[in-house]
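User: Hi! I'm a student and our assignment asks us to look at how structure tokens line up with a sequence. Could you show me two examples?

Assistant: Happy to help. In each example below, the sequence comes first and the structure tokens follow. Example one:
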Amino acid sequence: MYVVDTNVLIYAVNTAAPQHPAAHGWLTSALSQGQTVGLPWVSVLGFVRLTTNPRIMPQPISVPDALAAVAVWTSRPNAVLLEPGPRHLVLLGELLGAAGTGGNLTTDAHIAALALENRCPVATFDRGIARFGVDVAIPGQH
């Protein structure tokens, strides 16, 4: 399984982004293979929030188009919407405590805690998430 970060979802649909070919190719391949693709709700909601915001995206997509993309991803039999498990709060607290802060690192710590709970890497373009002791899989790199 992979836990997918918001940036992979955004780059997978944002054809203007230099990361688009890698993100789109990786996500398409991952969803067509047998390995589980974990989509945290925070990543899905971040995707919808950011891709539909004209202050963030030069060419935002509509809410129906954003939700349609999510529906395509989640319709795949190997895609799962990840929910925090029973150890999540403890893991999140440990990760934030070790980082010495919350703030902007809170979402990364949440995604890292999901990866630790599920014993899998995070698919992301953000190498900084590795500070939380998780394996990172950067789409397009082997």
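Example two works the same way, sequence first and then tokens:
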Amino acid sequence: MSNPLGSVDPQPTTNSGFGRILVALYAIMAIGATARSVFAIATKFDLAPFAYTLSAVAAAVYIVATITLARGDSGSRRIATACITFELIGVLVVGTLSLIDPDAFRKASVWSWFGLEYLLLPLALPILGLWWLRRSRPVER
């Protein structure tokens, strides 16, 4: 069906349908990662500064992804794509390093072991997020 203005066909947006579930999952991860990192940094940062800093980075990524996916405008979509791509690279690198050199991760971060402590949601979310951003992008005609 064509748009009466002839510019863009109706498409799902980042904050409708499955996008709402994705935004909710990112919000849950944002809350969990933020709480984990704030507590760890405030109470035991000296035990594993690298892991706790990584958890804070993950929290920031989840917060930005939540906000930009919920907004869904073209600028937010670009930021979400960059943020979620960074997240996927981070999960893959940290997950791989935590398997290769477990001593480097004396304490787990959100992304350690590909997010196993979070039921692998940190591994699944960026894959789903990038898929949804691609599927819901506006089609110019």
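Here is something you could point out in your write-up. The mean pLDDT is 90.
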